[in-house]
Amino acid sequence: MNMRKKLDISAYLVVGPENTLGRPVGDIIRAAVENGFTCLQIRSKTASARELIALCCEAADVLQALGKAEDVVLLVDDRLDVVLAAREAGIKVDGIHVGQSDIPVAVCRKFLGPEAVIGLSARTQELLNYVRQADTRDIDYFGAGPLHETATKPDCGRDAAGHIITRSFEELTELHAISPVPVVVGGGVKARDLPALRKTGVDGFFVVSAVAGAADPAAAARELVATWKAAPRS
Ligand code: TZP
Ligand code: MG
């Protein structure tokens, strides 16, 4: 197990320059964090390493300015090279989020050390198998999804008819029940999903477009956080 302080993934924003309708990523992050978001992930499949490092710097600066650098976790999707380079440059990046086909979590842990936050995402069935068979000592949380079809991640698994395969509340309840680490769920999540999602017992929700694509990201973040907090947990 790692040696980090308590991790809060209850309200988790995933964001990159392709998700913000042309607005600066830092502005979206500020809107989310000022309204209660607890975790951030920089995710871009098109940005260069240099751009990703600059985005980490922008995000870390926003957290610093808001006095949230110690409370809100800043992660990068997939790119261990970017996390290491950013840290080398003195930017406070807390860890990495990887998928099952990305760099293995044990390798991330070796490079990033015991205090880093490392998240792993996969399909629910794969996560259930993982929990049953594998060692989760290097993993701080699981990401599961999508809850609904989403255009934000076109490479989600699809059925024979080409529809994205979504996660049921039953699957998520089971995952939460047997997972030794916290679980965060996303994919097409809107505020109206949060009461049912919280009832499964999972630890949080993640969103891209519900905040980064909103006309008023601050109001959207506020509504999401308030709805989650007001919903009873199982
Ligand atoms: N992983 C599973 S779905 C997804 C990711 C990164 C994208 C979710 O985006 P949105 O806009 O909240 O549906
Ligand atoms: Mg990945």
Automatic annotation (TrEMBL):
Record key words, sorted: Magnesium, Metal-binding, Thiamine biosynthesis, Transferase
Native source species: Mitsuokella multacida DSM 20544
Name listed for the protein in its UniProt record: Thiamine-phosphate synthase
Any one GO cellular component localisation term in the record: cytoplasm
Encoding gene, per UniProt annotation: thiE
Domain of life: Bacteria
Cofactor binding summary note: Binds 1 Mg(2+) ion per subunit.
Amino-acid positions noted as binding 4-amino-2-methyl-5-(diphosphooxymethyl)pyrimidine in the UniProt annotation, renumbered to this chain: 41-45, 77, 121, 153
Single GO BP term: thiamine biosynthetic process
Gene Ontology MF terms in the entry: magnesium ion binding; thiamine-phosphate diphosphorylase activity
Gene3D superfamilies cross-referenced by the UniProt entry: Aldolase class I
